[in-house]
Amino acid sequence: MNKKLLGSTALIGAALISSTAMAEFKVGGDITATYIFGGADAASSTSSDNRIGNETNLKMSGSADLSNGWKAVYTGKAEFDGAATANPDHEYELQLQNGGMYVSFANDGGQTNKTMLTPFVSYPTSSSANAITPTKSAFAADTQIIGVAESNNIGVGGKAAGGSWVVRYAPHAAASGSDGNDIDNITAEGGSGSGYLIAYSGTSGAMSVAAAYTVLSANQASASGVSDAKEKRIGVAYNFGKAKVGADYIDYTSGEDTIGTNDKKTILVGAAFSLNDQVTVGVYHQSTSDEKNGATTQDEDVRMISLGYNLGAGSVAVNVVDVEGASNGTTMCAAATNCDYQGILVTTKVGF
């Protein structure tokens, strides 16, 4: 009898859910193929690197009007890339909306602390440089506290002051995000803690602004003297019509045992100009300074020129990247104190 009742209840529940959840559902995606060629100047480093990459994103979205006046909205992406990992990277956000407010459950989805307002033609400067170099560079943008947004988190957000805001909390933030970038203090202590982020972005006329503050708590049980990792970022952009200029500033504090062990600051400026409906060009400069105590390494400077061609349902872009003082003299340059490298990243993207 109990089994029959449980079975009946489960069927009734499934019927009630399916009657609303199928209100609207869409599936789409895109495929990106890249050709990468890069080389370093230092004799002790990798002299050249020639690779082909690919990534497929399956995107899903759905919404349903709930009977209590709330609305459920889902956006998700399954990412398959050339790394051939056992499972695809799943990024998603489920919002329960009521009026201008919402409660969300997410993992690397929705509004986070990763917004950048510099107008890129294709990939950001830091991502393009990291794709060309054999190892991760020292950019603050790629050492950001991604563990909060890229771990299971709960958030609350809404509209205000001509833009949107969100506060997210991750009770168990991962030591590294899905793209493999490390959180220095957490990795060093072999554990992870909770984290939160506050983000805002908005537009007024031709001006856009974005700001975020993120804290990742250290695992105090593993060692003494560990402080929280923190990141502050702010961006601004102005749209002139065919041209757009923007800048981003990132201040990262690692929170390792020794204060200032791995702190970094990044300033990025750039501009993009549409020559016509098909062709867009962009120029960028990014500089990362090493803020650790007693630092003597030179700043890591990146210059990039981008050219993009719009194919309607697809696009082709070419990024030419020049890096000076790569990684502030870490593993990319092997025994060299500092080294430079250059490369080209060609990207073809098609949506469906």
Describe this protein's structure.
This protein is mostly beta strands and 352 residues long. It has a single domain, classed as Porin, CATH 2.40.160. Helix content is 10%, strand content 50%. The chain contains three helices and 16 strands. It has a 16-stranded antiparallel β-barrel with strand order 1-2-3-4-5-6-7-8-9-10-11-12-13-14-15-16. The longest helix is centred in the N-terminal third of the chain and has 20 residues. The chain is globular, with a radius of gyration of 22 Å. The N and C termini lie far apart (50 Å).
Keywords:
16-stranded antiparallel barrel, globular, mainly beta, 16 strands, 352 residues, Porin
What is the fold's blueprint, element by element?
Elements: H1 2-21, E1 24-40, E2 49-65, E3 71-81, E4 89-98, E5 101-107, H2 125-132, E6 153-160, E7 163-170, H3 184-189, E8 195-204, E9 207-216, E10 229-239, E11 243-253, E12 264-274, E13 279-290, E14 300-310, E15 314-324, E16 341-351
Antiparallel strand pairs: 1-2, 1-16, 2-3, 3-4, 4-5, 5-6, 6-7, 7-8, 8-9, 9-10, 10-11, 11-12, 12-13, 13-14, 14-15, 15-16
